[in-house]
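The records we work with from here on pair a chain with its fold. Taken together, the tokens spell out the fold as the letters spell out the chain. The record below shows the convention in full.
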Amino acid sequence: MPQDANARGQVGALLTRMGQPEKGLETLRETIRLATPNDASLGFFYLFAGEAELELGHAPAALDWLQRANAFMPGSPLVQAWLASVYTTMGDQPNAAKYIAALKQLAPAGAERYASRKFGPIPPNGWPRTRILLRADSGFAREDLMAWCEANGVDFLFGLARNERLVAEIETELDRVAAKSRRTGRPERRFKTFMWTTRRTWSRRRRVVAKAEWTKGEANPRFVVTSLRRDACKAKYLYEKVYCARGDMENRIKECQLDLYADRTSTATMRANQLRLWFYSMAYVLLCALRRIGLHDTDFATATCGTIRLKLLKIGALVRISVRRIRIAMASACPAAQDWSRAAIRLAIAALARASPA
């Protein structure tokens, strides 16, 4: 293949991965049309064309390109993985299983990564002490997910929707907290742990932690189901410190969405939206590092990203650049000038310490 045609094919692949699969596919088709039948790069361009078709939602067309790639590169683990993915998308599980089996023979590690996409990564053997705790609301308290966690050594802590049977288990505790709340005039809560199972959907009994609470003159029971043993985590600590921390994580997600506009994912393709989310996430990590390293012991130590952006970053200043230094002059009335200067010095010191060979 001529060098310019090869470059054109690479541009087509790049366009697809930058969220422009239509232009990428058009470029790849032209490259493939100009290629010779024995060109070494042709198999990769078939693969890239299949990727573009899949990005556009055309699974049958993607399958046609990937089958051509497989005929050209029959021993490629990447092609086997893409074929398994396309057949899974089309609901053809027997063919998907065939290519997963081929992937296991060609690249066992790649097969493990592909198989773990359903629920999440399995800790590699090189990290035997790695512990994963999956924490989520009651929408995830499903038998297939809990059974998968138990089979793969992953702990879980899920909210559990209340029902009459669950409330009946803590009826005594609710009566006690109601009586104490009426006596003290304050909200009261107690915790209870017990083994429980559904009548039909669960395959085994599992540990449930219940919060029996009386507040504002009425009962407020809550339940969670977990794989953590009693000796590993007591009921009160499990609910208040481990499970309820999920609410603070949701606040951090809202902070990223509202302050850094991470909810702006209106691009036409999933891949481009994913790239935008990566940028938002990197911005959030940078602001968290600024808050942790440069703003501790200041008025901005616990400020949100939006407050830092508006009061510390989006401010006017006079910047003079010379050969040896950059001078930044702020208005004498700027309320954040001292904190800004302190943060700049701390970040410079941290950068020097990180670059030091010691």
In short: The longest strand covers residues 206-215. The chain is about 55% helix and 10% strand. The first helix runs from residue 3 to 17. Residues 133-243 form one domain.
